[in-house]
Amino acid sequence: MADADAVAPLSEVEAAALFADLADLPGLLLAVSGGPDSTALLFLMARWRGTLRTGPDLLAATVDHGLRPQSRQEAAAVGDLAARLGVPHRTLVWRGEKPRTGLQEAARAARYQLLAQAARRAGMRHIVTAHTRDDQAETVLFRLARGSGIAGLAGMTRIAPVPVAGTGGLTLVRPFLNVAKARLVATLERAGIPYIEDPSNRDPRFARARLRAAMPLLAAEGLDAEKLSRAADRARRADAALDWAAAEVMHRLPSERSPGGGRVVASLLEFRSWPAEIALRILRRHIEAEGSEGPVELGKLEALLAALQTAAETGQKRWRRTLAGAAVSLVGGKVVVDPAPPRRRPKGAKARGLRAAAAASNVSPALRRIIRT
Question: How does the average pLDDT of the chain come out, rounded?
Fold first, then answer.
């Protein structure tokens, strides 16, 4: 794309192409903060919907986190714009005490929870956000800095589950994921539509803000948002291929239970013949199927695989480790995974747990990562 095209307003034809697969849905909840990206989403979707004889009902929703004095007025301004565009609007308030640490993560979790609740009340199953190519680039850098694996480096996807617990059945749609933020800003400027600049986006206390500030320097060295987004596309393609390969290997394995009731992954000889990445993925699937603690962290899974390989190399006949509520064992020359026994709680732990739960009762749970890192 030429430089002039990269900052050109988004045309009606381009917007219609981005929204085309949403036309047959019954309803769309638009997440609109008032910033340039989400304001452009509201404007472009309202204009697109107006060209259709039939199509989805639109509902705009703004989450007021209550973290800045201006937030209430900003939500009201979004409501005024939505009214002018003919789109119903709701302001969703994050109530209760706010955490002192992990504020951005908690705020993000609360935002998705509130949006999910609003969508369900409206009878809608799709939430549309305005994540752009710039957001994708920041996500890749953020995950790279945290040492993410290939699945994490794949970044965000256009269609995904809503990334918070208790929102099963709802879908997140990101139609602008391959659109430069500058194009959305240009779209609003041409239409004469004002938008809000959230100062927290430049607050150096937050990692994402620091990465955002570093982007111009990285772009000068050739590592711009377009290249980072392309790298995410390639990582996603490779991740899908590896998942397919792991599934093919698993499909060829017999379904077998050990005498103790655990699920046999494979003979140790066969297990050790697999590439490490395939072994990790197969082991992860078995652990998540037999365990009770949800997704497995990649770093812990890698450590477990290394320990298992060491046990095999040193000729240990019996070996056992637990991870994510599952137990991985070497039994009779086979790798076996079964549910781990319940953990024993130290004396007084129950009372401490109840006190901790009470203290945190007004704080939304931290965002669950949907892409393993």
Answer: 88
Q: How many other C-beta atoms can be found within 10 angstroms of the C-beta atom of residue 354? A: 10
45 or 343: whose pLDDT is higher? 45
**The total number of structural domains that make up the chain:** 2
Residues 346-356 have a mean pLDDT of: 51
Are residues 206 and 147 both part of a single domain?
A: yes
Q: Could you list the residue range(s) of the whole structural domain that residue 329 is in?
A: 253-339
The yes-or-no verdict on residue 6 having pLDDT over 70 is no
pLDDT band at 260 (very low <50, low <70, confident <90, very high): confident
- Contact assessment for residue 242 and residue 236, using Cβ atoms and an 8 Å cutoff: no
Q: What is the CATH number of the domain that holds 307?
A: 3.30.465
Pinpoint the alpha helices (H) of 175-267: 181-191, 207-220, 225-252
Q: Exposed, middle or buried: residue 223 (CB in 10 Å: 0-12, 13-18, 19+)? A: middle
**Token reading at 68:** 């800045």
For residue 258, the tally of other CB atoms under 10 A from its CB is: 16
Contact 126, 27 (CB under 8 A): yes
Tokens 């973290």 map to which residue?
A: 67
Least confident of 34-43, 63-72, 197-206: 197-206
Q: Are 172 and 129 in contact (CB under 8 A)?
A: yes
Please tell me whether residues 17 and 47 are part of one structural domain.
yes
Q: What is the CATH number of the domain that holds 63?
A: 3.40.50.620
Lowest mean pLDDT: which of 125-129, 280-284, 289-293? 289-293
Quote the pTM value.
Answer: 0.83
Q: How distant, in Å, are the alpha carbons of 5, 19, 148, 151, 284 from that of 299?
A: 42, 38, 9, 13, 12
